[in-house]
Specification:
The chain is mostly helical. Helix content is about 65%, strand content about 0%. Helix 1 runs antiparallel to helix 2 and helix 4 runs antiparallel to helix 5.
Length: about 90
C-alpha cells in the first residue's frame, strides 16, 4: 500500500478531512477531499463521495471539544455537496 505525500502529514483520514473542510479552500481543499469533475456530473458519485466523508468524520470517535468543529465540517461538506448536485 502506498501513502500519498499529503497523507504523511495527518494522523488519520479523519484529521485530513477535518483540516480540509475547516481550514482550506480552493485547489488545496479539492485535492485533499479528492474532488474532481466527475462529482459535478454524477449525482450518484457525488452522494457516494459525501457519504464516505460523512461516515469518516462522524465515526464514533468524538471528543466533546470537537463538537463545534464537527458541526462546522458537516455544514461545509453539505455545502460542497449541494454545489456539486446543482451543477
Amino acid at each position: 500500500m502506498t501513502v500519498s505525500n499529503e497523507d504523511q502529514y495527518f494522523k488519520s483520514t479523519y484529521h485530513k478531512y477535518m483540516f480540509a473542510l475547516l481550514y482550506t479552500d480552493g485547489v488545496i481543499r479539492m485535492k485533499l477531499l479528492c474532488i474532481n469533475t466527475m462529482l459535478y456530473h454524477s449525482e450518484i458519485q457525488a452522494k457516494r463521495w459525501k457519504d464516505r466523508i460523512y461516515a469518516c468524520i462522524n465515526s464514533d470517535y468524538l471528543n466533546s471539544e470537537e463538537t463545534d468543529e464537527l458541526q462546522k465540517a458537516n455544514k461545509k461538506l453539505l455545502e460542497l455537496y449541494n454545489n456539486m448536485i446543482k451543477s
